[in-house]
Amino acid sequence: QVQLVESGGGLVQAGGSLRLSCAASGITFNLASVAWYRQAPGKQRDMVAALASGGVPDYADSVAGRFIISRDNVKNTMSLEMTNMKPEDTAVYYCYIRPWAGVPAWGQGTQVTVSS
Q: What is the Cα–Cα distance from 24 to 109, expressed in whole angstroms?
């Protein structure tokens, strides 16, 4: 069974930086596609950044140039480095993993709040 455990998040001022991490278990991590999503109150959950196995990162237009997604296939972790943050980045952030075979899984979510 795939399990994802998120860490990081919190409160940051506009222009600041935060790093989110997500540790995966129960999966052949290096063959999986990973992504970060976020959901603001009253809005749908949207993809922020994605990185397929052996692929290149894909970013939402709203975060391109400010966020960086990365993965460590040895430690089975994924990260999202967020810089130059804006109040509109405030949301619950979720890590997501889609195995090469099997059911995708979500992290538990972590709150990110950017104050103006």
A: 14
Nearest to 34 by CA among 55, 14, 20, 16: 55
The tokens describing 32, both together, are 């999986």
pLDDT in tens, 40-82: 999 999 999 999 998 899 999 999 999 999 999 999 999 999 9
Question: Looking at the predicted structure, is the pLDDT value of residue 3 above 90?
Answer: yes
CA distance 25 to 8: 18
Instruction: Tell me which DSSP letter residue 88 carries.
Output: G
Alpha-carbon gap, residue 89 to 14, rounded angstroms: 9
